[in-house]
Amino acid sequence: MILPIGPIHPGLKEPLRLKLQTEGERVVKAEIEYGYVHRGIEKIMEGKTWQKAIYLSERVCGICSYDHTQTFAETIEKISGVEAPLRAQFLRVITNELDRIQSHLLANSTFFKCLDHETLFMQVLDMREYIMDSIELLTGNRVNMGWNVVGGVKMDADERLFKPILDNLKIVEEQLPFTRELYAEGPVVGLRSKGVGLMSKKEAIKGRAVGPIGRGSGIKYDFRQEQPTYVDHLDFKPIWRKEGDNYARNLNRFDEIPESISLIRQAIDNMPKGDYRIPVDIKTGFDTHKNEAPRGEVTYMIETNGNLIKHISIRTPSISNIDACARYMLDGVATVADAVATYASSDPCIACTERVAIVDEHGESVKKDFYEVI
Q: Please, which of 30, 50, 103, 289 could form a disulfide with 330 given CB 3.0 to 4.6 Å?
């Protein structure tokens, strides 16, 4: 039988439809149908100044919002042949890693909610509040930070705030081992996650899985390995696991948190003096740039006409990860009871995936099957 889940479902954060072909309790084939949230955000950016377009880029994704502004700004900087001051680069690292921690905690809490494990759900969300408070201390906002600008960051950091930020990180660092152990050793969670939603390394590569989803299947790659700020100034190592199941993906996110905390401490301890922002004469041209968002690689391709955005195309990590989820994690290796939790383990974001309105020859918005979009 065909079992539809969604587009409105208590376990789905955003609207989409899971179509599961089942034999008894076993899922033998899965498809994902998009088309419920079309915002056309890339088209809206065209013809705008970078100041207005970067404001829109922060609204591509609600959870990875920070990385979109950083990638947007750094793409414009590449086109213009400039580099943000080193102090701004370090401040971007701090904010980027704080954003990664809160995103990973939110992703795992969503998974625990799908398993009805209220204890882990609440503990993880409680830890996340310390990170959200730290983000607010640094940038003045909790979610849409408005922190990045072309040429650096909007304002310099008050270094007196570094201590309360570090204090918050210490609290998270102290609480994390107990929560991780409760997840890693809990027999009920293990039954619902170990060996469930399996995706091999070969399948992850074929499915173009990125971020913790790919690294949870043995892909030893993190784009931060190629970013000069991380390579030249900070001690960073990627985290990965080889099991390729729901258990590995969530544990991989837990294990990336201490690494992010270490990077923040390094950036604060070695914070350079100097400018936090430089003026940039925006050139006419085209370039592409990547960053490692919490969910994986985010890519911006921008063509400018002076200060105006002529064309922009954004590739978010969720488009690959949700595709890999449907093709490999759900398809033949999950049960109906674990379908929503398996989907949640891929940390999906529908808003950032459905950026462009698909229209017909008359300009009317149309819905298409996910694989047609791909």
A: 30
